[in-house]
Write a structure and sequence with these properties.
heterodimer, A: 3 domains, 17 helices, 14 strands, B: Rossmann fold, 3 domains
Amino acid sequence: MEAALLERQDSIHRTGEAPFVMDCNKDSLAGAVSQRACVFCGSRVVLYPIADALHLVHGPIGCAVYTWDIRGALSSGPELHRMSFSTDMQEIDVIFGGEKKLYNALVELIDRHSPKAAFVYSTCIVGIIGDDMQAVCRKVSEEKGIPVLPVQSEGFKGNKRAGYKAACNAMRQLVGMGNISGISKYSLNILGDFNLAGEIWLIREYFTRMGVEVVANITGDGRVGDIQRAHGAALNVVQCSGSTMDLAKMMEKDYSIPSLRVSYFGVEDMAESLYAVAEFFKDEEMMARTKELVKEELSLIMPELMRYRKVLAGKRAAIYVGGAFKAFSLVKAFRTIGMQVVMVGSQTGTPEDYEELAAITDPGTIIVDDSNPLELSAFLQEKDVDIFVGGVKERPIAYKLGVAFCDHNHERKEMLAGFSGMLNFAREVYGSVMSPVWKFVPRGEK
Amino acid sequence: MGKILPNYVSTTNACKLCKPLGASLAFRGVEGAVPFLHGSQGCATYMRRYIISHFNEPIDIASSSLGEKNAVYGGGANLKLGLKNVTEKYHPALIGIATTCLTETIGDDVKMLLYQYRQEFMQDGGPMLVHVSTPSYSGTHMEGFHAAVRALVEQLTEEAGSNGTVNILPGFLSAADLRSLKEIACDCGLSATVLPDFSETLDGPALRDYPLIPKGGTKIKDIQAMSGAKATVEFGYTLPDQLSAGIHLEKTYKVPLHRLGMPVGIRETDRFFEVLSELSGKPMPEKYAMARGRLVDSLVDGHKYVFGKRAVVYGEEDMVIGLTSFLAEIGVQPVVCASGGTSGGFIKAIENAVEGFPVEMPRVHEGMDFHEIGELAAELKPDFFLGHSKGYALARGLNIPLIRVGFPIHDRVGGQRLLHIGYHGAQQLFDLIANAMVMAKQDGSEVGYSYM
């Protein structure tokens, strides 16, 4: 296609046209205006919701200030995570090294806030000037008696996925520190939900109704103490393809805890996920309770959902999200309300992810990795899309062209998980697609 | 004076942004330009996100997307590839290249790399390349902004014959401010070159097609001809000489410079119009005389609602100076004037702004973060906050209104449409402040008065 650079063409495919292997999971092309952020971003978003930890960004001010209160990540208690802490490195620190400043900043902030743990994020120049963050963190940890964990998240050392891994490495050091007595044999950790708008509270409620104890939220509404006990759970349920799978693998290796991949978006995936958990515990009563739960929840939402379906049926949706796993669920969720997905892409998918997307989408659907505004806008126009689902950076692309939009990322305020979340999603889509404003934009003028 | 602030090592909730963000905004205000950051991919994406959340407009900022190898062996190859790709896809008239802390620290010689690039790829023409050094470990987004404006002038402006125009270097204003500024100049019969001008590029109409580069912005040929202007008007009392494009034009091309404060409030706007009158040789147009008259009339009508109220004002230094000057004019006591900037000229400018008015000298601090602002605010019992969205948590904690001005406005619509400057801007500010005070009293009253 014309909007794409030659080097990008192996990252854009169409379902059914020819078998393909997606060119993906690599550094973004210079000058292509990628929608991706960096390694630091990957680490920061994963660890961000741990609400009683101190999150200190070691670097110049930008990295900290652009991630201040950046996601919903609701907490039922402490809100230390909503603060933006930085060593605010100056030229002199770059020249003479920032270790002393880091030490003093850590001590100052730990004394002020008494956090349960501290995460220290390295940024690009820390990687270049070679501050020994490990040593500083170890020293402060000994002095203050809390875990102080370096997160090796220098922005240039790979893409967002590398940042996920660095975050998981840091959390791995917490797991295993807590007392696990009294944990039920029917227990699990929730990995990969970030409670952007209250999702994890709903999911916990479902598990409670099934008779399953949730040990740790990783990381939505997360607590250091819970993560330290996470090795006492019988199972890890992992949502979000990239972000916390590494931790699940580490825990399988370290503690033989198996994991299930789940998704809480859309009625199909939500129900399947709950059934998979019930099946794992091989408890008939639990399975019966789960079936009852699904039935009850569906009966609550279906009448209204069907009303939206009637109006939305046949409309076309485009999806561009961070992780491909969310895209799978969104494709199905749109189908539930009668809509057709005509374009789907992600920032960090793997070849296998894209294979699966090709398998579940209709012929002709555009599938794209690490896209950019010029490509995305061309796709929206080519496919005459009715609604675009993405994050803040995708929103103005849709709006500028007069296309409806649904925020399914950090800044959303609507709870979109579970059964009631599906209804919220349908309301969101309906509320944007059906707005009369589209009559006035150039695209809507006959 | 109250307690002395401890000298904290750490920064909490900074009241500043990083240099390349300011440079990107300035480059966005040039016609046909694409901002380009030489660094890792995250910088461009974070800044786009931050800017989008204020303007609700697309802003494509390209990046050389350096990886680990580039950080070790130098980012030259990626810089060149990035420039090539941007040229191919966006067909820009200009690429504004700003460095980041990464490329400054590894020591990439951008000037030399661009020389090589021109030799290798631009024999048959191509976009203009303007570069600016913006390591984020020294200075704030404002230094980045001014440095980019200065770089544009230094690298584009050529010797030109006298053309009777006026250069206006406004600093960082809203899109509505820039539109107003152009209208004022036009109404005064002056042909003005406003640099930068993102009034359209970051606040454009709904479109049928996604523009490669949005319309609008300062024309490159106008920047080239700034040397022939009859004068430069540059806003900003804290703008350091080495970052002043006005001083460069004065020194290099002998264009007389009028350095003013941001025209916020009555006195600063009067000064601005005096200079415009001097340059046009005509009195202030009737339209503005009337606006001034209505403004003064409204201040009289509403003076009791605001007199003696205590305000915490924060943001970029020059914006805070302008706002403080206006608050003094309406009898509001600024109790804290804070900025993350560290120009060295902030305190003196605030002293000048309140001099001769019945208000005490406020606590004025450079290099402040919101933790420190919060500590002072808790002690000084303000009635309202005046500044951008990032003060919301503090204002909420104190249960007082936040009156949103400046950048960023992330929790309301219309940040780009806020008007701060001129008599019309002062009118908007006054209405906002007076109504916030009336509303606080009304909502807090048991009676719930339906008249003021």
